[in-house]
Write a structure and sequence with these properties.
Helix content: 40-55%
Radius of gyration: 15 Å
CATH class: Alpha Beta
CATH topology: Collagenase (Catalytic Domain)
Largest sheet: 4 strands, mixed
Number of domains: 1
Number of helices: 5
Number of strands: 4
Distance between the termini: 25 Å
CATH superfamily: Metalloproteases ("zincins"), catalytic domain
Structural class: alpha/beta
Low-confidence stretches: none
């Protein structure tokens, strides 16, 4: 299994429970790498709406907040070869930025716990870092949804096994 180091930077207050859930999500994500990846690193920033809106405007030309932004360090990890990364060093995945206020709104909208929504956004962004993109077309959207569901199911099993409330 890949050793995945997740550096979490919170510009807003993140509860201990949310930190535990995200750490468990990172354990699941570590199982989602090809066998030739021994070690990877991922940066996660949890921020407020103002920061997210600025980043969304600067990087995507959309002047509004969003739930998660992904900034991949690799071109496309879905390919079997031709990566930008050269083994055997640490694979830099890139950066994820998650808006805590937007996650709260979505958790309320979907009637789930905030921690559940944060984990969903973590996996969603993680898949974007691997090269998945639901905005390309309906086929890619279904592929990405399938992978999200698989990761969320693995998370649910591990969460139950570890007794994480």
């Amino acid at each position: 299994m890949t050793k995945l180091t997740v550096a979490t930077h919170a510009a807003v207050r993140l509860s201990p429970a949310a930190r535990k859930w995200l750490a468990l999500a990172a354990e699941v994500a570590a199982q989602d790498f090809p066998n030739n990846v021994r070690e990877a690193i991922l940066n996660v920033m949890i921020c407020g709406d103002a920061r997210m809106r600025t980043m969304n405007r600067e990087h995507r030309g959309k002047d509004k907040t969003t739930d998660v932004l992904s900034f991949p360090a690799q071109t496309n990890l879905r390919k079997k070869s031709g990566w930008d990364w050269i083994a055997p060093g640490v694979l830099p995945m890139g950066d994820l930025v998650i808006s805590l206020p937007q996650a709260r709104r979505q958790a309320k909208e979907f009637s789930v716990r905030l921690e559940e929504e944060l984990v969903h956004l973590f996996f969603h962004g993680f898949l974007h870092l691997q090269g998945f993109d639901h905005e390309l077309n309906a086929k890619e959207e279904k592929i990405m949804q399938k992978h999200e569901a698989r990761l969320l199911e693995k998370f649910a099993v591990l969460r139950k096994k570890k007794g994480l409330k």
